[in-house]
Amino acid sequence: MDHPISKETRRYNYLLGEIDAVYHEISLKLGLSDSVMRILYTICDKGDCCPLKDICRLSGISKQTINSALRKLEAEKIVYLKPSGAKNKNVCLTEKGKQLADQTARQIICAENMILTSWPKEDVEKYLELTERFLNELKEKSENM
Which single residue of 38, 50, 53, 144 could bond 43 by disulfide (Cβ 3.0 to 4.6 Å)? Predict the structure, then answer.
């Protein structure tokens, strides 16, 4: 059964790859690995402290990679883990971590916010609506694979 890639799918995949490449280049310029940047980004999105399970869910990184990156960040005094209930942990930024986040992840968040606020509100809503629709339909289709 032959399923050639449509022109639209090829363009979509190209754009996703290029966006990932830009985020990778930003991480390198700022002296961080992609996984550390995503962890810092996710924590910043939640404030200065974030449930570990949210980092796992929102970052798209494997648990193993997250755990090894967190061990490194703990050793560098960038984050600390704080128990939250019987089995859960929060990942919190230290003062050093907050400074690093200001110089890295928060710079990306600021750039993203500037881009989206420069677009007409209707375009932003349509972009987000279509992206969410694509995600939901892809999840649905993945259940039958």
Answer: 50
Q: Is 38 exposed, middle or buried (0-12, 13-18, 19+ CB in 10 A)?
A: buried
CA 98/CA 82 separation, integer angstroms: 16
Residue type, 124: V
Number of neighbours of residue 50 by Cβ within 10 angstroms: 22
- Answer whether 89's CB lies under 8 Å from 51's CB: yes
Sorted by sequence, the CB contacts under 8 Å of residue 43 that are 6+ apart come out as: 49, 50, 55, 79, 91, 92, 93, 101, 105
pLDDT digits (tens, 9 = 90+) for 10-35: 999 999 999 999 999 999 999 999 99
What is the C-alpha separation between 7 and 54, in angstroms, rounded?
A: 35
What's the pTM? 0.89
Among candidate residues 36, 24, 53, 31, the one with its CA nearest the CA of residue 93: 36
